[in-house]
Backbone:
C-alpha cells in the first residue's frame, strides 16, 4: 500500500487518519453525550477531563490531517455525477471546518468556566479566554450545535458510502479501507 494518496486510491497515512479518528471522535461523542448525567464526584471529574483531553487530541490530529490532505493528491471520484462529486468535496472540507469549530468551542467553554486543561495528566494547555459566564454560555451552545450538525453530516456521509458500495457497486468504500482495492 502506498504511503501517500494516488489518483486512484487513498494511501496508508490518509486511511489511518480517517479510521483512527472516526473511532476516537465517536467515542468522544459518546463520553460527551453521557457525562452530563454523572453525579458530582471523582468519576465525573475524570470523565470530563478525559473528554477534554481526547478533544484536544482530535484538534491536533485534524490540523495534521488537513496539512496531509493539502500536500497530497485527492483520488479522482469514481462517480460521473458532477454535482454529487462537488457536493462530496464540499462535505469533506466541511468536516475539517466543523471539527475545528467543535474542538475550539469546547476549549473556549472549558476555559471560560475553569481555566487551563490538563491533557491526559501529561501537560497543560492554557485557557483561551478569562473566566466569563457569558462567553461560557455562547461557547457551550456553539459546541452542542456544532456536534449535532456534525453527527447529521456523518450520517449522510455513511449513507453515501453505503450507496456507492451496494447500489453503484464501485470501489469508493474499498479504496478507503485497508488492503488492495485496485
Ligand atoms: C471530537 C470532539 C468533541 C466531541 C465529539 C464532543 C462532544 C460533546 C457532546 C456530545 C457534549 C454534550 C453536549 C450537550 O449535551 O449539551 C459535549 C459537552 C462538553 N464538551 Fe465536548 N466534544 C468534543 C470536544 C471537546 C473539547 C476539545 C473540549 C474541551 C477542551 C470539550 C469540552 C466539553 C465540555 C466541558 C462539555 C460539558 C458541558 C457540560 O455538560 O457542562 N469537548 N461534548
Ligand atoms: C467521524 C466520522 C467521519 C469523518 C469525520 C469522516 C471524514 C471524511 C473525510 C474528511 C474524507 C475525505 C478524505 C480525507 O480528507 O481524509 C472521508 C472520506 C471517506 N469516508 Fe469518511 N469520515 C467519517 C466516517 C466514515 C464512516 C463511518 C465511513 C463508512 C462507513 C466513511 C467512509 C468514507 C469513504 C468511503 C471515503 C472516501 C470517499 C471518496 O473517495 O470520495 N467515513 N471521510
Residues:
Amino acid at each position: 500500500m502506498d504511503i501517500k494518496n494516488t489518483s486512484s486510491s487513498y494511501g496508508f497515512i490518509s486511511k489511518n487518519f480517517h479510521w483512527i479518528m472516526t473511532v476516537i471522535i465517536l467515542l468522544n461523542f459518546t463520553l460527551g453525550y453521557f457525562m452530563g448525567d454523572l453525579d458530582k464526584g471523582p468519576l465525573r471529574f475524570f470523565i470530563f477531563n478525559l473528554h477534554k483531553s481526547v478533544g484536544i487530541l482530535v484538534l491536533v490530529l485534524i490540523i495534521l490531517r488537513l496539512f496531509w490532505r493539502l500536500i497530497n493528491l485527492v483520488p479522482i471520484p469514481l462517480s460521473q455525477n458532477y454535482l454529487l462529486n462537488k457536493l462530496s468535496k464540499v462535505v469533506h472540507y466541511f468536516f475539517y471546518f466543523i471539527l475545528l469549530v467543535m474542538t475550539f468551542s469546547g476549549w473556549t467553554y472549558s476555559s471560560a468556566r475553569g481555566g487551563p486543561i490538563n491533557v491526559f495528566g501529561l501537560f497543560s494547555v492554557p485557557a483561551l479566554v478569562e473566566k466569563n459566564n457569558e462567553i461560557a454560555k455562547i461557547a457551550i451552545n456553539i459546541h452542542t450545535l456544532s456536534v449535532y450538525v456534525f453527527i447529521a453530516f456523518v450520517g449522510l456521509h455513511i449513507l453515501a458510502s453505503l450507496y456507492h458500495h451496494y447500489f453503484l457497486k464501485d470501489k469508493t468504500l474499498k479504496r478507503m479501507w485497508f488492503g488492495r482495492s485496485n
